[in-house]
Amino acid sequence: MADDGSAQSTTVWPLPKFHFQVKWDDQEVAFQEVSGLDMESEAIEYRAGNNPVFSKVKMPGLKKFSNITMKKGVFKSDNALFDWFNEINMNIITRKALTISLLDESASPTMVWKVQNAFPVKISGTDLKAEGNEVAVETIEIAHEGLTIENS
Predict the structure, then answer these.
(1) pTM for the whole thing?
(2) 147 and 115 in contact (C-beta within 8 Å)?
(3) In this predicted model, what pLDDT tens digit does every residue of 3-42 receive, in sequence order?
(4) 20-37+66-151 classified as CATH 2.130.10.10
(5) HEC secondary structure over 23-75
(6) Is the pLDDT of residue 58 over 60?
(7) Who's near 97: CB < 8 A, 6+ residues apart?
(8) Coil, helix or strand at residue 143
(9) Percent of the chain having pLDDT more than 70?
(10) Which of 26, 37, 79, 86 is least surrounded by CB atoms within 10 angstroms?
(11) 2 vs 5, 9, 10, 46, CA distance in Å?
């Protein structure tokens, strides 16, 4: 008899990536795309002068976080991203907590990325094309000081 999938475990299939939400502090902002949720550890190479082995030892070093890039549609009278970017004044900027959640079918967070001390470093407005029929999309790139991942 064929399996109809009704008794299938929820851990068999990976989560789709199209259902997510982004919150800045407590405000939810609708984005079309989020990328750059990665981190790496720099490798430190070291060799003591009296080591009989003629090779270096590698150790984990400082963690490094990529900038996060987010894209969203342009809406009439919505200048929130540009207003935040325009607050930059000689090392003074309002840093915000950022929470990015991957949601399941019931809109409950299943995987949550928490970003500390985020601030904008680049904003790109939409490109304009007389023959195009696409939605106007703006892009913001933010730097941050740390990324943690939580599973619900």
Answers:
(1) 0.82
(2) yes
(3) 566 666 666 778 888 999 999 888 899 999 999 999 999 9
(4) no
(5) EECCEEECCCEEECCCEEEEEEEECCCCCCCCCCEEEEEEEEECCEEEEEECC
(6) yes
(7) 24, 25, 114, 115, 116, 117, 118
(8) strand
(9) 92
(10) 26
(11) 9, 16, 19, 59
